[in-house]
Fold these 4 entries.
Entry 1:
Amino acid sequence: MSTHRQIVAITYETAARAVAVAMEVGEQHGVKTVVSVADPSMTLIAYGMADGATPHSAETSRRKAATSASTRRRTGLIPEALSTALPLGTGGALTTIDGGVPIVFGDTHVGGLGVAGGSPAQDAEIALKTLKRLGANTVGFEQQ
């Protein structure tokens, strides 16, 4: 019997870079973004909020990051059968609003990125562009 397990998680340096890149991409799209990065245990690692962003987007971005970190799925691609059950069953901790994507380098899942502030489609586009600029995988996360 094993006495412990090892968990791989995104570093603060990479998480902070993801936030900076997403903020820059959001600005290029004219969106006042709020960006969160969570590790696979749904712990917030890095966060940024553009001046003038809506206050509720802070919580939305955190939930998107936590959902993608935990489920390893893009929030907007979670199966319809779970679209109501997931948020209700977790007391609102998780969401199916698009704009959350898993962060995967090679075959290694390290966390989730949540972008809020625009429409769900804009948030998802910013998140995917951020993954590409970081050199993270986007395969399977782009369809919608």
Note: The chain has a mean pLDDT of 95.
Entry 2:
Amino acid sequence: MPYNIVMAESELQDTISWLLLQSSMAAKHRLMKTSDAHDLSLMQAFTLCLLAPGESVAMSSISELLLCDPSNVTGIVERLSVGSYIERRECATDRRVKTITLTKAGTALRSEFLQQINEIDADNLAQLTQAEAATLKALLLKTSAKPQAHKTYTTVQQ
């Protein structure tokens, strides 16, 4: 049986998707240590990272960026609100739109997550030259499963 596992793994090592998945899982486990320490899920941590301090973003934009159903964002936002990391408001110009904004506590925690993401990047890219790292980034952006996730979302006027 172990032979079959080794064979399957060696076949997978030839696929870019498997290599990306392995790299992503390693980063995920490191980020989970920080999110767990604050009693947050990884999706809640990602949501904090997507918000710019001082800006209000429509919850529907967060759903698109996280590649998840809007109903999932409602639960994520509720938990972040309870933790006083974000404030949820109605948009002044369209009451149907709900926006979220980082609080001071949310901004501080976001900084902690971003620092850890930068440390993970540094560790992962340590064996690459700057040119190789730039090429890798360009290729990953080019092959992204959902290119619209890289567009800039306009903030909502309050």
Note: The beta strands are 57-58, 86-90, 98-102.
Entry 3:
Amino acid sequence: MLMNINFFVFDDFYFNNPWWIASHNFLHSPTLLLIFLALLWPFRARSGTRRYWLFWFFAGCLLHTALDIPTHVRDGPVIFFPFDWHYRFQSTISYWDPRYFGREFTVFEIGLNIVLLLYLLVPWFWGRLQQRRGGSPTPEQPT
């Protein structure tokens, strides 16, 4: 039963069902995201508005898509959606498929996560440690 569901969702629907293609690529198509960003460009500096939030949301989606495209062999986003509903860039690397360096990419991704966590957590721990000792939270600058 689970195999049938996986087949329909990830093989049949993902590549053939218009509703599935549209719903997935609405926030993954670089073409559509660039159109949204162009329309919202005048509002990018007006903080506190909905259009400002939408601009930066779509910019984040475009960054995600820029990382998605080179890490999917056959299942990446539709590049020219909504103008072309089928063209996908075929990369030589897959972040999940072991036939296309998926294992190596997983090792890289775990290593990157560890480095980023250390980058975020070490200064926080250092500041807490300094506060408990009664010192300044950051190293003093020479005068």
Note: Residues 26-100 form one domain.
Entry 4:
Amino acid sequence: MFDKVLDRLSTEIALKIIEMTAVKVEAGLSGRGAAILANAVAGAAPKARVGRPPGSKNAAKPAAVAKAPKFKRDMSCRVAGCKNRSKGPGFRYMCEEHMKLPKGEQIKAGDAYKAKHAAKA
């Protein structure tokens, strides 16, 4: 008698588990799961996702790379006594007024500036 009750109970539990599993499988297949299953049945590999995984804002960001420390360049004109702002390294740190000087004089002014400021570096 006890064996019959135990068998019936185990059968009921197994049927309930199968029913609950079927409901979960159907719910999972209603979205993207159906496409994955269809591709798996057809023998095709699922498409690779592009971008970050859904719901994860920072998961796909690469690890932070150490950057070189930034420094403020001295943008003053390299000609002695000039207070104008230079046009930057592409113009030998000369202002617009001193860019009109001959190239030899520009180089001499740059060398004089380097010699004067070499002690600070």
Note: The longest helix spans residues 2-42.
